[in-house]
Each structure stands twice: as C-alpha cells, then as structure tokens.
Amino acid sequence: MPDPVTSPSQGAFSRVVYPSLTGTRAASTAPTASSTASSAATASAAATATLTHPVPSAESVRARAEAQGHAAGYAVGLRSAEAELTARRAALEAEFADAQARLHQHVAERAVALEAAARALDTRTLPLLADAEEALVATALDLASAVVGYEIAASEPVAGDDPRGGRTARAAVTRALEGVDPALVHRVRLAPSDVAHVEEAARAAGLVVVADPRLRPGDAEAELATGLVDARLATALDRAREALLDAAAVPDADASTVLDATGTPYAAGAPHGPGTAVPGATIALGEVAS
Fold first, then answer.
1. pLDDT in tens, 2-35
2. pLDDT of residue 246
3. How far apart are CA 94 and CA 101, in angstroms?
4. Could you tell me if 68 and 85 lie in one domain?
5. pLDDT over 90 for what percent of the chain?
6. CA distances (Å), origin 102, targets 89, 91, 116, 210
7. How remote is the C-alpha of 201 from its chain's centroid?
8. Read out DSSP for 71-113?
9. Is the pLDDT of residue 257 over 90?
10. How do residues 90-109 score in pLDDT, each as one tens digit?
11. How far is CA 8 from the centre of its chain?
C-alpha cells in the first residue's frame, strides 16, 4: 500500500493524503526520473509526518469549565435541598404527633370534667325533682280527695230531692262486693246517710246492710266469715298515695293488697285473688269506683 502524504490545511489541522492507486500503478509501470524523485520526497515526508488534533480555544475551555461547575453546584444544591426537606418533614410529623397527643389529652380532660359536672348536677337536681314529684303526687291526691268529697256532698239529697239517686252509696256497695262471692258476705256496713239509698235494693238482693257511724259517706265494709273487705275511700286513697310515693314498691303487685289483722301485708304466694277470703284478714282495695 502506498505511504500516505501529509499536506497542510487551514488552521491548526493537518490532513493525510493518500496517493491515487491508479497513479501509483502508472508510475510503477513507467518509472521516470521525476517520479523517482517525487517518490523519494514523498517517502521522506511520510516518514516525518505526524497526526495532529485541534487545540481548544481559551473561550471553549472556559465554557466547558463553567458548565461542569454549574452541574456540580446543581447536584450539591439538590442533595442539600433533599436533606433539608427530609428534616423538615420529620419535624412536621413530630409536631403533628405532639399536637394530636395534646388534643386527645385535652378532650379526655374535658370529658372527665363534663362527667363530674353532670354528676354534680344530678346530685343537686335529683332531690329537687324527687321533692317536686312527691309534692305533685300529694297535690294530685289531695285534689282527688277533694273531688271525691265534692261528689259525695253533691249526691246528698237536697230539700227532699235526690238527683243522684244514691249513686255514691250504690258505688260503695259495688266496691265492697267486687270479686267476692255474695254467698260469703254476712253483711255490708255503710255510712248512716247511705243506708237509706240502698236498703231496699239490698234487701231484694238478699244482702244485709247496716249503718256504721265510723264510716263516712261513700265508704263501705263487707263482713265475711273469714275476713273483712275494706272499701273505704280513705283507704283506697292512702294505698294509692303509698304506691306512688314508695320507691320500693313491689312490681306486679295486685290491685288489692291483703293485710292481716295487724295491718301487715299477707305472706306472698298466699291465695288472695277475687273471691278468695283470707282468715282474719282485711282487703284494702286500691281502686275508687265513681
């Protein structure tokens, strides 16, 4: 292969020029003195020729240095910002956790204070409510007693006229005989003013009615062979008052409370339903018939 020929070019660059193969072949086939001399010169130049690279200018070197410095500074700043962001995030999370813990503690303290205030309010208001309820019940019973007294007074005959026809006296007898076998009744005690209103009807029904000065108008007592049925209005109102005011009243209590001769409630489980007589006992009815 022919040796390359180096020729100068523009600037600081050098170019390697390879001789034409055709010319080389022609020269080889027809050697001349000039070609021989040219070949010798070319060989000498090829022996001394070297490949050269472009030399960067000062401006390009400075631009490259600035770019590298900018990239390095950007990388350092990015790492610094990331570290600062991580630290800031950790600080915010710690601050949020602390605020949440303080909020929970605050809510718990307020709940305890609210519960204590509610208990204090109950301690103050419940007795007042109980007193008010007791006063209300007592007032209602007093009003009921007044109404019953008015009804009894209104049923009294006026100037020989009896507009009610002895309705209160008949209601007293009905209460006394309610739930009781008439065959077991010896006699019925009434207030003297009530006897005249029911005496004829009682005689027709085979009942013995007697006057008892202890009884008030509207009261009645039925004497049985085994006990006494107390159908007095005062007894019924007293039982109603006791049932409403007694907080320890037994639930599911029967409307009629069986009392023994001393006024003590009869033993639980003993037969004392309608039509059942308890020896030596008094039945205090808890209802008032109008």
1. 555 444 444 444 454 455 555 555 545 545 555 5
2. 67
3. 11
4. yes
5. 17
6. 20, 17, 21, 84
7. 65
8. HHHHHHHHHHHHHHHHHHHHHHHHHHHHHHHHHHHHHHHHHHH
9. no
10. 999 999 999 999 999 999 99
11. 99
Q: Is residue 162 part of a domain?
A: no
**How many domains does the chain divide into?**
3
Which has the higher per-residue pLDDT, 52 or 170?
170
**For residue 141, which of 235, 229, 215, 231 has the smallest C-alpha distance?**
235
Q: What is the 3-state secondary structure (H, E, C) of 159-206?
A: CCECCCCCHHHHHHHHHHHCCCCHHHEEEEEECHHHHHHHHHHHHHCC
Phi, psi (degrees; rounded to nearest 5) at 286: -100, 10
The residue range of the domain holding 202 is 167-285
Enter the tokens of residue 215: 């009884």
pTM over cut 0.85: no
The pair of structure tokens assigned to 235 is: 């007894």
Cβ partners under 8 Å of residue 106, min gap 6: none
